[in-house]
Amino acid sequence: MVAAGLDQDTLDMVLESIGMFAEGRLPDSVLLELDHEDRFPEEIVRGMCGDELGVSLLFIPEEYGGMGGGSFDVYRVCEQMAAVDLGIATGVLATFLGSDPIVFGGTEEQQARWLGAIAEEGLLMAYGATEPEAGSDLASMKTIAERIEEDGAIVGYKISGNKQWISNGGYADLYTILALAPDGPSWFVVDRGTPGFDSGKPEDKHGIRASNTAALSLMDVEVTPDRLVGGAEGLGLQQAQAVFGYTRLMVAAFGLGAGWASLDRAIPYSAERIQGGSPLSEKQGFTHKLIVPHVCRLEAARAYIEETAERIDAGEEMLNTEGAIAKYMATEAGNAAADAAIQAHGGYGYTKEYMVEKYKRDVRITTIYEGTSEIMEMTISRDRWQHHLKTRGGYYQDLAGTLDELHVSHPDVGADVAALGARALAAVMETARTNRLTRNQHLLFRLGELIAYVECAGSLCRRASRAADGTLSPKADQRLDQKSLATASRVFARDAARRVAQEGTAHVLTAAEPGSVDAVALSAAVGLDRVLAAQTGAIADMDMLSQSVYENYATA
Ligand SMILES: Cc1cc2nc3c(=O)[nH]c(=O)nc-3n(C[C@H](O)[C@H](O)[C@H](O)COP(=O)(O)OP(=O)(O)OC[C@H]3O[C@@H](n4cnc5c(N)ncnc54)[C@H](O)[C@@H]3O)c2cc1C
Q1: Which one of 21, 229, 352, 431 has the fewest beta carbons within 10 angstroms of its own beta carbon?
Q2: CA–CA separation, 126 vs 121, rounded Å?
Q3: How far apart are CA 187 and CA 243, in angstroms?
Q4: What is the pLDDT of residue 410?
């Protein structure tokens, strides 16, 4: 599994090196040019993965010449790369993803061979799962791997099929390809240049234009049996599933990085831009719509990412739902923040000269690849629904209980309001259960969203409390000080509770048979009055957060 990780100094050094590399080699003018020319900067991505920066070493275990970075390290690095350029970051991520089946499912011999080669030679990899007709539903894939047998022994495999939307598809040295072997889906390691293996022309994409995305075609591509990852057929989907917690966290960090990069442009711009006689940064109608809610949502996502990364690094496995919640919240928040950053720049934001226009197109991909937002909603909702049933409705009541306890020791982080949200969620889910409403996919998916809000609110309360106690990981991001984190947590908790109480009630009523659910009784069960009462003071908190965010920029 993932190693426990780097020490703080080493992580700081890696982050600093990426920052210096970006400053020297990837100024805005170069990034805008790459975007405009729709060009994959092969030499830069190879430099980042290989000799110059060695980012690939991060996820390779030390015994194979890597640095043995953990999930927390990978999140910090992914966030930083995404803040530079999401297209280039995707080129690097593709090597992370491409090697994952080997890191997590390969035999010792396979790991030594290929991970060693990535570490030594800085090989670029690609991850070939998606097919023209199998995206979200990978199980319907058609690429096949037929056994080549001699005297009853398997001497190789012949792979045939098509892969679609493969990052680094046109440039990778090594590919992991998911194919249907006789005993089930299996990963195979295929070299570029193997006869019968070809890549298509680069896709002309909406964003991340500095990344290469290409289709792959495989026609009777022969590989030896030692290229079957893990040495046994049929493990492919489990191997892919086993790392979802980890890989989705990387894309979550991409959403976070791109979202913050957008705000990092909008905030200083609005401090300078004078309209109506004063800077935009002094206008609530501007800040409380286009800046503050996005700061809170991104930081709630960060809290969830950090908690999940810590759990993965502590050895917990199969955190697929947590990975899904982190990815869902962070990428949706990143996307919304980037959209707000265009709005914050007015007409200038709508032109290609301004980086926010590119950020918005780039970050859009994060709600699509590595599982779409809708698939995340389904994953989250299905899993937590099971928890709700198994605990007879106690799952979110218990969360509310722990948040109430947290409120006693840390009364300023909004844990009491987050607890109201958790109780409202329990009531919404229970009403959906007793009225058999989750047969409506729409309701199930909307519950996925509300669950993500409640769980992230809890995370942000805990993170703000840990910041107050001085017990945050030393590797944790320090962007907001303890007081601002507590304020952001109060704002987000109110938002989460309000969404669950108001929207959750509306979703249940939307799905119910006429007359079967009493709206007044449901509003009482979710505690709508208390949730609305808890909104008092939100503007004062937003004023405070806005002020501290702008002060940070002024002093930076
Ligand atoms: C730039 C780019 C890079 C990529 N890189 C890689 C890569 O390196 N390797 C790789 O293997 N793949 C890669 N992908 C593929 C990516 O992971 C898929 O595009 C994604 O999983 C969605 O699959 P799809 O495009 O087939 O959409 P579909 O699965 O057809 O989905 C279309 C829409 O329907 C929704 N939907 C799907 N199923 C359901 C359902 N059951 N219920 C309700 N709604 C549903 C989706 O949320 C989406 O909104 C990349 C894609 C892009 C665009």
Answers
A1: 352
A2: 16
A3: 14
A4: 98
> Strand pairing of 274-275 and 144-150?
unpaired
Q: What is the mean pLDDT of the chain?
A: 96
Ligand 1 lined by 165 (C-beta under 6 Å): yes
Active site residue 370: yes
Q: How far apart are alpha carbons 351 and 515 in whole angstroms? A: 52
Contact between 222 and 158 under an 8 Å Cβ cutoff? The reply is yes
Tell me: pLDDT of 292 over 60: yes
Per-residue pLDDT at 132 exceeds 90: yes
Atom of ligand 1 nearest to the CA of 168: 8
Say whether pLDDT at 2 is over 50: no
**Among 496, 514, 515, 516, which Cα is nearest to 504's?**
496
The CA–CA distances, whole Å, from 73 to 52, 65, 98, 479 equal 19, 17, 18, 16
* Whole-angstrom Cα Rg for the chain: 24
Chain segment 351-367, per-residue pLDDT in tens? 999 999 999 999 999 99
Give the position, in ligand 1's atom list, of the atom nearest the Cα of 137: 29
Phi-psi region of 498 (alpha: psi -120 to 50; beta: other; left: phi over 0): alpha
Q: What is the pLDDT of residues 208-230, one digit of tens each?
A: 999 999 999 999 999 999 999 99
153-167/144-150 β-pairing = antiparallel
Q: What is the rounded CA–CA span in Å between residue 86 and residue 26?
A: 12
Residues of the chain by 3-state class (helix, strand, coil), percent to 5: 65, 10, 25
Q: How far is the CA of 374 from the centre of ligand 1 (A)?
A: 10
Task: Give residue-wise pLDDT tens across range 64-118.
Answer: 999 999 999 999 999 999 999 999 999 999 998 999 999 989 999 999 999 999 9
Bridge partners for 278 per DSSP? 275
d(CA 180, ligand 1 centre) in Å: 19
Q: How far is the CA of 397 from the centre of ligand 1 (A)?
A: 35
Among the residue ranges 122-126, 258-262, 363-367, 495-499, the one predicted with the least confidence is 122-126
Q: Is 167 in the pocket of ligand 1 (CB under 6 A)?
A: yes
Q: Is the CB of 166 under 6 A from ligand 1?
A: yes
Mutate to test the pocket of ligand 1, among 143, 164, 165 (most ligand atoms within 8 A of CB): 165
CA nearest ligand 1 atom 37, residue: 136
Q: Tens of pLDDT along 451-479?
A: 999 999 999 999 999 999 999 999 999 99
pTM for this prediction: 0.97
For ligand 1, atom 44: residue with the closest CA:
374
- Ligand 1 pocket test: which of 99, 100, 133, 136 has the largest number of ligand atoms within 8 Å of its C-beta? 136
Q: Is 160 in the pocket of ligand 1 (CB under 6 A)?
A: no
Q: How far is CA 118 from the centre of its chain?
A: 24
> Which atom from ligand 1 is nearest to the alpha carbon of 445?
43
